[in-house]
Design brief:
Strand content: 35-45%
Distance between the termini: 42 Å
Largest sheet: 4 strands, antiparallel
Mean pLDDT: 90
Order of helices and strands: HEEEEEEEEEEEEEEEEEEEEEEEEEEEE
Structural class: mainly beta
Helix content: under 10%
Strand order of the largest sheet: 3-2-1-28
Low-confidence stretches: 8-22, 25-38
Number of strands: 28
């Protein structure tokens, strides 16, 4: 059964709940207990400088970010605020972490929180969970002068808040789509792209005048509304031509031209609900597969490695995952075990991209966003 038919059936079955919650809802099954992670590495002394080459994760289940040795596991955590989601790290070593309470700033060299900048937009009570208000996707301008954070406002459209990184103040608020899962910036910094999960769109924001322009991205259509599973989640900007790449269901890759708004569709092969994305320096697209939307239909969790020519290798993963980062040499992927639905686990799967060999690392509680320091 193709995803169009499957999505329509899911909508009819769960429309009442979906109208309240939006998509990537639970399946109606009890949440699975987190799978145990391996033992953590020896912790860092509080006064020790942060070693080079660590990973940093946003711990959605622990209100922290965690520093992770890619060989040994978690080393230290820093409190940042309720339910951290996405993060971005600048050349100066400061991490910008989107939490439910505000945009936290962490010095990754000393492992200290420097600030937490409140959002200008009201988002309701500070809570946990996939549908909580507050920051989701976050990105930095190429010069590091501005942080852009997508803020979810439950029950209505979201906003993009622009933060001056020197003064640590919100300088502008731009309307965008519903539940802004991801924020990306063009290579020259002239445009910001916000993925609206529940509104089937990308909002293109000109970085100078901060004028928004909506592009619908719905390769399966929008008839499912809030109850549909077939929505955009994460995007990457292809350096070679500035196109935006958004995977759907391990079946379709939407290639969006932000200048014209035109979308072309390329086939994919993983046959799994897809979330996080990353690009290697040589242009390979990495996509996290979370498993079938409905039990027994579609394939399990995976990591797709897609070459620029469209050839794909699909590596199975044990259990759901959410986001992915890639090592600087392009040989290793780090896939977070958090996940915005049920069934998460508390760690990272390390995937060798040439062979598909995997191993697990402990990495905080329900890690979502991840970056390589």
């Amino acid at each position: 059964m193709n995803r169009r038919a499957r999505g329509a059936r899911t909508v009819l079955a769960g429309l009442a709940a979906a109208l309240l919650l939006g998509a990537c809802t639970g399946t109606g099954r009890p949440a699975e207990a987190p799978a145990p992670a391996p033992s953590a590495a020896s912790p860092l002394a509080a006064t020790a400088p942060t070693p080079q080459g660590l990973l940093l994760t946003a711990d959605f289940g622990a209100d922290t970010v965690t520093f992770v040795d890619p060989e040994r596991g978690a080393l230290a955590s820093v409190p940042v605020g309720r339910a951290p989601y996405g993060l971005a790290v600048g050349a100066d070593g400061r991490a910008w972490v989107a939490t439910a309470e505000g945009l936290a700033v962490v010095d990754t060299r000393t492992r200290t929180r420097l600030a937490r900048i409140p959002y200008r937009t009201g988002t309701g009570p500070v809570t946990d969970g996939e549908y909580r208000g507050g920051g989701m996707g976050v990105a930095l301008s190429p010069d590091g002068a501005r942080a852009y954070v997508g803020v979810n406002v439950p029950g209505t459209t979201g906003v993009l808040e622009v933060v001056d990184t020197a003064t640590r103040e919100v300088t502008a608020v731009v309307p965008v789509g519903r539940r802004p899962f991801d924020v990306d910036v063009s290579r020259d910094g002239s445009e910001v792209y916000v993925t609206g999960h529940d509104s089937f769109d990308l909002t293109v924001v000109a970085a100078g005048p901060l004028s928004p322009r909506r592009i619908e991205v719905a390769p399966y259509g929008t008839e499912g509304g809030l109850g549909s599973w077939l929505k955009p989640h994460y995007a990457v900007v292809r350096p070679s031509d500035g196109m935006l790449l958004l995977p759907f269901e391990g079946e379709r890759l939407a290639v969006v031209d932000p200048r014209t708004g035109r979308t072309t569709i390329e086939p994919m092969t993983a046959d799994t609900h897809q979330h996080g994305t990353a690009l290697t320096a040589d242009g390979r697209l990495l996509v996290v597969g979370t498993g079938p939307v409905e039990p027994g239909e579609g394939k399990g969790p995976s990591l797709t490695v897609r070459s620029p020519d469209g050839a794909e290798r699909v590596y199975p993963l044990a259990g759901p995952h959410e986001d992915v980062a890639v090592s600087r040499d392009g040989r290793t992927a780090y896939v977070t075990g958090g996940y915005t639905r049920d069934g998460y686990w508390n760690g990272i799967t390390v995937v060798e991209l040439d062979t598909g060999a995997t191993r697990r690392l402990p990495a905080g509680a329900r890690p979502l966003g991840i970056t390589v320091l």
